[in-house]
Each structure stands twice: as structure tokens, then as C-alpha cells.
Design the sequence.
């Protein structure tokens, strides 16, 4: 079974919520990204989401956008990211890895995407392909990889159904109207919408976009299968990119983990 | 009068294998809302009448098809006709589209208008129609373009709009577009995004084309009146490609007319320092559509180079990519140097100062008039006037004010 699917199933069976943490590969450099991935796991992270840098990341707010720019200064490519995952897998074969990026970078490396093996990345989230479309249309076919689609507060109900049924990894519920890292969560709306999604699919639903405080994480975990934390981690990585003292990130993730438990 | 009888795009927004709707989920609702509204209004008489009324009374249409006697004499062959979009209110073809889209915004009850701009012409055209309806207006502009096009920045501000310089990426048009999309994602409930070219996700390439098609429709009628047949060639510059698509589209089924799009060759196509994706790019996905794109082997979008801010864009409208592949339109490129030479030449010969974008179309007359028959009628789309470029040209010529 796919590593992501089995991990999320396992958490659900034990009545636990998933902590998904995001970083951009190669920000500030690939060695540091590898260290951070291990730090994530040591601090209680269940799933690692790796941002694949793109020059024009239209769904991202300023924090993650700058991280993409910094990674691109290091000429980070999908090939290097898959090598990074291989290195990670030398010591960790447990933690599922999701690659999150934009269509153009994946279709430019379609052979690489098709050759991802069992012991590599586990899932792909293509931010700019609407969830009811099949990624296979674009050549993203690989039995080792499942897919994740986004559903937002503005997604109409007929589309919610087809997207939910099309998502094989998990369903990523966008908790706000905006880009990554914005604020103003509408908790009631989120609860209702996640309930609707769950009518259509047994796939786990993760809540993400705009979750910063432990209070938000705790509230949202209560009505979903887990939370995705992105911008606040990326900001801390940027703050400490020179000193590389990332203790604060470990602390923050442990607090998050406790809050959603 | 209707906007378009074209079978393209298909209902998913594709022109052949180009176009589509490659956007984050957060934008899907807004695009669907726009598409539904447009499809409902585009055949409604009231809407069409209001659009054409604004085009005649506010924009000043139809624009003349003007015989360029001295330019014709200069090339000693054929007849050169100028479609005078430079005479439109605000000085470029951009106003045709903004007049149409602000009507859509009005019908949709949106209170806040946003737009991206490169050369600033679309920013001016958007700020103008927003002022006319008393709507709040925000213009995103790459900080490099804010520097190059300071006159238009001030014009936009005079019109009561806010200018937001964008520093990310290459700080030009593509980054301004990214930022406008982000604003739209965040403020989708009350905001209408007036995209400025035939680019972006479906339905924009279709909507912008339809509103701009008034240009080509007029040329067809004017050609009949002035020289009794269809032109042998229509020449237009292509950045995103809205002026070219506006004049090309009604000609697609008129096979005797060659359609020639001129891209920005920058330092020369062979140097790689240019903005000519149809000449030297490969298909890719940017800003919600699949089209020819300037990209590296990793799928990252390349920085572009052109003396003209309005053409300095790594992508191109998907319908142009399709017209290229099916062979209905030809796409060539001319260098910065040749465009600047044409800028001076046309200004001196005709008393018409073209925008630097438009100067690219004029520059292609040099090779074209040699290859055409002496009886050929050639229409150049004078997409905009050059007042906004005086500082740029002066700087290149080493003149300080």
C-alpha cells in the first residue's frame, strides 16, 4: 500500500490527527532541507510536503513565494529534489512525502515523474490543475504515486463531489479565500464544508492555508483529519537561514502536535 | 451584431491543445462566474448596444484606416494602410477591451477593479473606465516597468487609481500578473480582474479577443470601401497578443489575407535575449493557460528582454499558439534596434509617432514589402501611440531633459 495512504489510515484507526509540515526544497540549500526534514519527523510531523520551486507560484503568498525565489537562485530542479528524497529515505522509510508544485515543472520532467519508485516520494499535488481533471491527461501516471486535490470555500457542490472522488491521497481543504499565509479563518464555514466533503469521499481531509497559531490548529484538527502548516515554518526557516539554529521550529511543531492530539 | 462566431475555444477553453484553465482551486469559482455571466450577456442586444455605444462615444470608434503615402513611397512597392488604434481615447487599442470588461463588472455588481500592466497602457485604460464608473481601482505593475513608464504611472494616479509596484521575480509584466491573480484570489467576492491581453485562464483569452475584434471587423469594411478587396497582409505586434488577435480574428476565414504577428526580438532571437516565445519557445503552462512559452529545460519561466515594456512577456495568448501550429498566421521577430529605427522612420515620414510595441510591426515592413507584389495592400495595426515612450527613446539616444 502507498506509504501516505497507510500512514493516514493508521492515524485514523488510532483516532489521531495528522500533522503535515511544508518546506521549499533548496531553501536555503538542499543540505539544510534534508536536516529540516529529519527535524520535522523528530518533532512529531507525520507527513512532509516538499514545495517544488517555480518561477511563478500564483497560489502562494509573499512568504512562500520568496522561498521559491531563494530556492531557484540555487537552481533547484525536480531531479535534485528526487535525489534529496533518496537521501532522506536512506534513514527514513516511514514518513510519507508529498511533492507540491506547479504543472509546468512536472510536465517538463515527465520521465522523472513516471519513474518515481516505491521508496521515494509518495504523492503529488499539482496546485494549478483543478481537482476534477485527471493528472494522467498530462502524463503524470505512476502507480507508486497518488494524488491530492484542493477544495476551497468557493468550490461549488457539484465540483466538490467530483474532486473528492478523484483525490486518491488526501483532500486538501483550503481554509481561506486567499493565497498561502493569509489570515482570517472562518471556523464555522470550514466545519460545514469539511462535513460536506466527507459525504463524498472516504479519503482523509486535511485543513491548510493560513493556520498559524496552536489554537487554530487545535480547532481545525477537531473537524478534519489533520492540518497542514506551511508559511509560518517557511518564515522561521528564512529567519534562521544564516545561523541554521532551527530549534524554534522543532519547538513550534511539537506544540502543534500536542495541540491537535 | 454579435461578438464572434468562432467555434474556438471549446467549452473547456482550449484552442486545439492550447489554453485551458490551469489555476489554483481558489480561482475556479471566479472564472466560472465570469464565464457564465459573459455567455449570458454576449448575445443580449442591450449589452451589445451599450458596448458599441461606449466604443463610439467614449472611445471614438471607428478608428480610421489611413493610407500612408510617404511610407508607401519609401518602400516603392505596394500600398501601406494604417489602422489608427493610436487615435482611440487613451491612445491605444487597450481601451476596447477595458470598456467591454468594465461593463461585465457592472453587470456582475463588482465594486473593486484590479488589473496588471506592462507598458502602462492597459493600466491607463483600466483606470480610465473605472474612473468613469466611480469604481475603486488597483493597478499592479512591475517595479522595472514603473521606472520605464513613469509617465503612464502618473496618468494612472491622476485617474484616481492606486499603483502597486511589484518587486518579485523579474519585476515586469509577468510578475504583475502573478500579483493581480493573488489579489483576485483573496478578494474574489467584490473584485473584478480586468486582464489586459488574450492571455490567462479561460474565459479571458476569448473575452479579450471578442471585445478587441471590433478592430478587425472595421478593417474588413474599410478595406472594401477604400480599395475594394481584402488586404493581402495584416501586420501586428505580438506581446500577449491582444491587438494582433483583435485584428486577426475576423480574418481567420478570409484565406487570401496573410496574418503576420511580429514578436519582440530584443537583442536578436539567436542571442536568447528576447521576448519571442512563438519564434523561440516551447509549449508550457503559465498564468493559467498552455501556450508557447520562454522556459528553461527545468520548466522555469525565463526572463525576457525587449526595449518595449508592452512586449516584454515570456508567454503569448493561446489562440496565437494555435494559429501558428495550424499555419493560419505567421510569427516573426524584429530586434530592438530595428524597432527603434522604425519608430524614428514612421514618426518622420508620416507624422505619426508609434508606440515602441507598434514600431515592431512597422519594422517588419522592410522585408515584407520586398517580397510582396507591387499591387499588394498591407494593413499595419497601429496599436498605440508613442508619447509614453519618449523618455525611453531619449535615454537610448543619449538625450537628457
Sequence:
Amino acid at each position: 500500500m502507498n506509504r501516505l495512504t497507510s500512514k493516514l489510515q493508521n492515524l485514523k484507526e488510532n483516532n489521531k490527527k495528522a500533522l503535515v509540515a511544508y518546506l521549499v526544497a533548496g531553501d536555503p540549500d538542499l543540505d539544510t532541507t534534508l536536516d529540516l526534514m529529519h527535524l520535522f519527523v523528530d518533532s512529531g510531523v507525520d507527513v512532509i510536503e516538499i514545495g517544488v520551486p517555480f518561477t511563478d507560484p500564483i497560489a502562494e503568498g509573499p512568504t512562500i513565494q520568496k522561498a521559491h525565489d531563494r530556492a531557484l537562485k540555487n537552481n533547484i530542479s525536480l531531479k535534485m529534489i528526487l535525489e534529496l528524497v533518496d537521501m532522506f529515505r536512506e534513514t527514513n522509510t516511514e514518513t510519507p512525502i508529498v511533492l507540491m508544485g506547479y504543472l509546468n515543472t512536472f510536465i517538463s520532467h515527465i520521465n522523472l515523474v513516471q519513474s518515481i519508485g516505491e521508496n521515494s516520494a509518495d504523492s503529488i499535488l499539482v496546485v494549478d490543475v483543478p481537482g476534477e481533471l485527471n493528472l494522467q491527461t498530462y502524463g503524470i501516471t505512476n502507480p507508486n504515486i497518488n494524488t491530492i486535490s484542493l477544495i476551497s470555500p468557493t468550490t461549488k457542490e457539484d465540483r466538490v463531489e467530483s474532486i473528492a472522488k478523484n483525490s486518491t491521497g488526501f483532500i486538501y481543504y483550503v481554509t481561506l479565500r486567499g493565497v498561502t499565509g493569509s489570515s482570517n479563518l472562518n471556523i464555522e464555514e470550514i466545519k460545514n464544508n469539511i462535513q460536506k466533503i466527507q459525504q463524498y469521499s472516504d479519503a482523509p481531509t486535511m485543513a491548510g492555508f493560513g493556520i498559524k497559531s496552536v489554537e487554530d490548529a487545535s480547532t481545525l484538527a477537531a473537524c478534519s483529519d489533520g492540518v497542514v502548516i506551511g508559511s509560518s515554518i517557511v518564515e522561521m526557516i528564512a529567519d534562521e537561514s544564516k545561523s541554521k539554529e532551527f530549534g524554534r521550529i522543532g519547538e513550534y511543531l511539537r506544540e502543534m502536535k500536542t495541540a491537535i492530539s | 451584431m454579435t461578438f464572434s462566431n468562432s467555434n474556438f475555444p471549446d467549452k473547456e477553453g482550449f484552442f486545439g491543445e492550447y489554453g485551458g484553465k490551469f489555476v489554483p482551486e481558489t480561482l475556479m469559482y471566479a472564472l466560472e462566474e465570469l464565464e457564465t455571466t459573459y455567455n449570458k450577456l454576449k448575445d443580449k442586444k442591450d449589452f451589445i448596444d451599450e458596448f458599441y455605444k461606449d466604443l463610439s462615444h467614449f472611445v471614438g470608434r471607428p478608428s480610421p484606416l489611413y493610407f500612408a503615402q510617404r511610407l508607401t513611397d519609401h518602400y516603392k512597392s505596394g500600398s501601406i494602410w494604417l489602422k489608427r488604434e493610436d487615435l482611440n481615447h487613451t491612445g491605444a487599442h487597450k481601451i476596447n477591451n477595458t470598456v467591454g470588461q468594465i461593463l461585465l463588472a457592472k453587470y456582475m455588481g463588482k465594486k473593486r477593479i484590479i488589473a496588471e500592466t506592462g507598458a502602462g497602457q492597459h493600466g491607463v485604460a483600466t483606470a480610465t473606465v473605472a474612473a468613469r464608473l466611480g469604481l475603486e481601482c488597483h493597478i499592479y505593475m512591475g517595479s522595472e516597468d514603473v521606472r520605464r513608464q513613469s509617465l503612464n504611472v502618473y496618468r494612472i494616479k491622476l485617474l484616481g487609481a492606486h499603483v502597486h509596484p511589484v518587486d518579485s521575480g523579474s519585476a515586469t509584466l509577468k510578475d504583475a500578473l502573478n500579483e493581480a491573480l493573488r489579489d483576485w484570489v483573496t478578494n474574489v467576492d467584490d473584485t473584478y480582474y480586468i486582464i489586459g491581453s488574450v492571455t490567462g485562464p479561460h474565459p479571458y483569452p476569448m473575452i479579450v479577443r471578442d471585445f478587441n475584434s471590433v478592430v478587425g471587423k472595421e478593417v474588413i469594411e474599410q478595406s472594401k470601401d477604400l480599395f475594394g478587396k481584402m488586404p493581402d497582409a495584416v501586420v501586428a505586434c505580438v506581446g500577449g497578443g491582444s491587438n494582433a488577435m483583435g485584428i486577426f480574428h475576423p480574418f481567420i476565414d478570409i484565406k487570401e489575407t496573410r496574418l503576420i504577428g511580429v514578436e519582440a526580438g530584443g537583442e536578436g532571437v539567436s542571442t536568447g535575449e528576447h521576448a519571442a516565445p512563438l519564434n523561440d519557445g516551447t509549449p508550457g503552462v503559465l498564468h493559467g493557460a498552455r501556450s508557447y512559452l520562454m522556459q528553461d529545460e527545468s520548466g522555469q519561466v525565463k526572463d525576457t528582454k525587449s526595449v518595449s515594456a508592452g512586449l516584454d512577456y515570456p508567454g503569448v495568448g493561446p489562440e496565437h499558439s494555435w494559429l501558428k501550429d495550424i499555419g493560419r498566421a505567421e510569427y516573426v521577430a524584429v530586434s530592438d534596434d530595428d524597432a527603434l529605427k522604425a519608430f524614428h522612420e514612421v514618426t518622420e515620414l508620416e507624422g505619426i509617432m508609434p508606440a515602441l510595441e507598434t514600431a515592431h510591426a512597422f519594422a517588419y515592413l522592410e522585408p515584407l514589402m520586398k517580397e510582396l507584389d507591387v499591387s499588394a495592400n498591407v494593413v499595419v495595426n497601429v496599436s498605440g501611440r508613442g508619447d509614453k515612450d519618449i523618455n525611453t527613446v531619449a535615454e537610448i539616444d543619449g538625450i537628457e531633459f
